[in-house]
Amino acid sequence: MALLAERNCALVLLLFIFLTEVHFQSVEAQRCVWYGECGDSTFVPGKKYNCNYTGPPLPLPAEGAELLNELCPGLDYGDRSLCCDVNQLQTLKGSLQLPLQFLSRCPACFVNLMDMFCELTCSPHQSLFVNTTQTGSVGNQTNVLAVQYYIGNTFTSAMFNACRDVQAPASNVKALSLLCGKEASECNATNWIQYMFDTNNDEPLAGFAPMNNQTWACTEGLDDGSGPCSCQDCAESCGPKPVPPTPPAPWTILGMDAMVVIMRRMVMSEYGPILDSNNPMSLNGENSDGTDASCWEVLGERFESALRRLFTAWGSFCVRRPALVVFTSLALVAAASAGLVYMRVTTDPVDLWAAGGSRARQEKDYFDRRFGPFFRTEQMIITTPVNGSFDFQPTTGGSPIHFSGQNVTLGDICLSPLAPHNNNCTILSVLNYFQNSHQVLDHFLGFGDLIYADYHTHFLYCVSAPASLNDTGLLHDPCMGTYGGPVFPWLALGGYDETDYSNATALVITFPVNNYLNDSDRVGKAKAWEKEYIRFMKNYHNPNLTVSFNSERSIEDEITRESENDVSTILVSYVLMFVYISLALGHIQSCRRLLVDSKVSLGIAGILIVLCSVTCSLGLFSYAGVPLTLIVIEVIPFLVLAVGVDNIFIIVQTLQRDERLHQEELHQQVGRILGDVAPSMFLSSVSETVAFFLGALSNMPAVRTFSLFAGLAVFIDFLLQISCFVSLLGLDAKRQESNRLDILCCVKLPEGQEEKTDGFLFRFFKKIYAPFVLKEWVRPIVVAVFVGMLSFSVAVVNKVDVGLDQKLSMPDDSYVLQYFKNLSMYLHTGPPVYFVVEDGLNYSTADGQNAVCGGVGCRNDSLVQQVYSASLISQYTSIAFTPSSWLDDYFDWIKPRSSCCRYYNATGAFCNASVVNPTCLHCRDLTPAGKERPTGDDFMHFLPMFLSDVPNIKCGKGGHAAYSQAVDLGEGGVGATYFMTYHTILKDSPDFINALKMARQLADNITLSVGHKVFPYSIFYVFYEQYLTIAYDTALNLGVSLGAILVVSTVLLGLELWAAALVTLTIAMILVNMFGVMWLWGISLNAVSLVNLVMSCGISVEFCSHIVRAFSVSLKNNRVERAEDALAHMGSSVFSGITLTKFGGILILALSKSQIFQIFYFRMYLAMVLLGATHGLIFLPVLLSYIGQHARTHALILSLTHSLTHSLTHSLTHCVCARTYILYLSPCIVVSSYHVTLPPPPPPPGPSANKAKVFAAKQRYAGTEREPLLNY
């Protein structure tokens, strides 16, 4: 930007000038102290001293009249007798160029400043307030070397007040920060004058009057028609300072959290009725009478009957034709899995967390296409554990970097804003105050041990005036970086208090690197350099320094490394589960039959089927071009293993407990068992599949991709289990019946008689656990505990944190963690934010300009003005500074008084301000029309010159460095543009989320006022947008999943809405309790945890649906007995199939080095398994015992049983479904009409069991070995 000011005004004096109130001797009013220019200055190269002259003012030559009117119109009167000649006026004009470019935004400010220098240089009353204090002779000429300039306090205060708020748009700071030698907030009238000149104050003598000319306030218009300064350049011209709205008060009742109060009341209201178990109308009340089967029940039984017949026939076929089924399954699996050759894994964080159609993604793509992607950042934060001083020697090293056969250096990839005029890299470091030169760093002035000036004095000067080209102290070294721009201290230092930079405890070094859109070659070079940079920094060690570092590729590299390292943890977890499954499936009758009754081979086959379902899902979606994510690869095998293993245990354990019927063959037995259990498996699998597929409606790519892959994998797993696994089960049963060893099937044991017994877990659930849980005094306690858990979780659900701490995405041993820690500890600036004006706005019209700009004449609700107003309440809006405005700087650059905009008279080409050529003409004339802003063709004609102008000492407003990328300039005119500012310091997810929300609110307000689309963009928006709607997305995803489970369960439970509602209710309680665990365990809500919640919804179906279906078809006399029956038979399979299988594997995840695995997988998986098991195996049976469907009377069962043994004479059919005591999952069949005459009983007080199912069960088992069980 090259905006320097420190000696700009002093140059007009061509010497050192001392300001003070001093003693003057009596002089005549019309006397000068100098006139004309003499010898060359020894302090300011290229400048001259003024000639000593104490005579009266002299008439100004005619050729200087126009220049006098331009610079000092207040002195253009009479015969123009002045104390300066044309050369002095030319020098004055040149010296005022930088103040002109920065302060002319506010006409009153600049007129006051010019008046001060005009009076000093040319006033005919010069001797009244200027006293010569030092002269020097060169030949026959006497040079004025030093003077005292007496300025009244009234004038200096008024001048400062008019200028203190003027902005420097290109630097996002106030102009006085560049012209005062310190921060604008610390600048005042005295130290501003001191910085422009130099002070050595003495008391003034009587007889000398200070220069106290009339001044203009920034709220006043000038005589030449210039208006008052704009609001952002003059606080007095603004209305009241915006006040942030008061944050909403927390919701309380009697001073306590309202949610807590409500949940406490809920616990009492829910627990009371349960205690009253003797009330005949209470939940414990039981009406055993029933009514005739309704048409609804008939339809439900018909559907279940169809499923039973289908699965029975299919199971029999699979056992009879195992080779056909297995090889066909393998062929289909191979064909589907072949799609893995097209597999693409997405590791780009943008693709993982931002949907292509999301607002943030579209805005990012728009920004990248118009202005290029945000630059890549390489950064180091250096601290020291040493309290004292130490010697530091520069370190060199690093291997040569090669990419595509080329050597790559930092110069090849770095950001060089002034290229091709200046190819030095942008390096934001305090060392750039010394131009990255060891020689400059060693500069000092002193005598012996007495040091007058050294690196420390230069450092203190540069942090006050980072854009200075000349240290006004003794060293006169520049502060400007070698790349042609300033290094602001808040970007290069850390760990300081407010603006006390000398107490900084950290050095920050930043290397911005060019980034490219769709240019893999140049991006590849940058990545190659970054790779070597990371390697070098990892190997660098210095006992006196602590260096944390980061590069653009660091996060992606560490996530990849983390995934690779976690492979071993995942494999150990899976192996542990595999071993358990293989051993637990077997039901050992005796030690002699250990190797016969074990089912290691069947367990391995079941696990392989689970893995095949995963590969099929991955392959099929890879065929479709859907990319995978790391979440899919890491989570779905875990999910499908949970679902699939449960079904395996149900099938195998049901067969182990079953007694083959008289004259029933193996294939018929397996078919009958599959007809019993497959509807329950079908219920859970379809519920999960539909829930997952509906979860794909999410806008978050990670959630959508997971849901798609998971839904298909679960359904394929179900298909393989009822086909391939059933065939393998039949083969294993034949092996076991022939006494052949497991795995070593060629070895056969001798025949022996073994008594068949139930397994330990089944006996425990049947004899001990189920009766205990359903005891009269235990059930109220269970309900009270679970209602209390639910109430607590509801009370804290709105307190769960939202976001993902980026530190959690890194492994425990990652070097990036230390960088993140130091970043939040030391960094004193926020990320840049761009307010983008989409193409279509006409900047060449006054209306279009006024809607955007921030200077004189611009609207109070313009873009720049609104962003400025937001920066005044930065603690609320998170906007830290006034935005840079290419439009306002363009207007300053093109002003007639400015030396910036010139062109060659002969060719019309741009002529830079540093060029000395008499043929270069100003772009605009110093006429009333020329002083106006350019419009129409003028605007477009000179704009390309502005954007190509490199800032220099003569013109600091050149737009090449600051704005060459900010304006999308095409043949049709100005397209999209941006106005950049910075956010405040953002340290955690809530800060980032709030900054995004506030920026969008501001941009929406600007869009309404401007009448043209404006949006904000910052590099982090694309990652944090999801959190603006994460609560809605979570509610939608989980709500849709629960709705799908309700609908599917209703249909597959034989149209029993009440049973489906209980399943859905229990799953909803599990999900709400998951939020309670998240709050207690510090787990935030984000895309990763939402994926786990969706998965929790699916796994919970396995815990609940089997229990409820077992209850719904049980033939016990009342709800308590039916709940006990369901828990005894199905509970053991659920416990061994899901809970124990997952528990061991989950514990291994705690050993992972990945913090994401420890928090979002270990903690959440453990919570979902424990909550699912406790709700499914404790709460749900108790709930069913209270509000499950009513059972039929014992008399009804006996009557129906004996009636069904007679012939069936009518063609009317009824759908029935029931469960026997042993099989507990009976299928549905169609039976003919029956002759049963029963008196209609009174209607029950609650939902009743499906009598059609009861009737069908009696008919199905009448006359068989199972008939006595009906009366159990």
UniProtKB/TrEMBL annotation:
Residue ranges annotated for the SSD domain, each copy included: 566-731
Descriptive protein name: SSD domain-containing protein
PROSITE patterns on file: SSD
Assigned protein family: Belongs to the patched family.
Gene3D superfamilies attached to this UniProt entry: Multidrug efflux transporter AcrB transmembrane domain
Gene Ontology MF terms: cholesterol binding; lipid transporter activity
An individual GO BP term: intestinal cholesterol absorption
Keywords per UniProt: Cholesterol metabolism, Disulfide bond, Glycoprotein, Lipid metabolism, Lipid transport, Membrane, Signal, Steroid metabolism, Sterol metabolism, Transmembrane, Transmembrane helix, Transport
Compartments it resides in: Endomembrane system
UniProt entry tagged with the keyword Transmembrane helix: yes
GO cellular component, one term: plasma membrane
Protein topology in the membrane: Multi-pass membrane protein
Principal localisation: membrane
Residues annotated as signal peptide: 1-24
Pfam families registered for this protein in UniProt: NPC1_MLD, NPC1_N, Sterol-sensing
Transmembrane segments annotated in the record for this chain: 570-588, 600-624, 630-652, 706-731, 777-797, 1035-1055, 1062-1081, 1087-1105, 1126-1152, 1164-1187
Catalysed reactions, as listed in the record: cholesterol(in) = cholesterol(out)
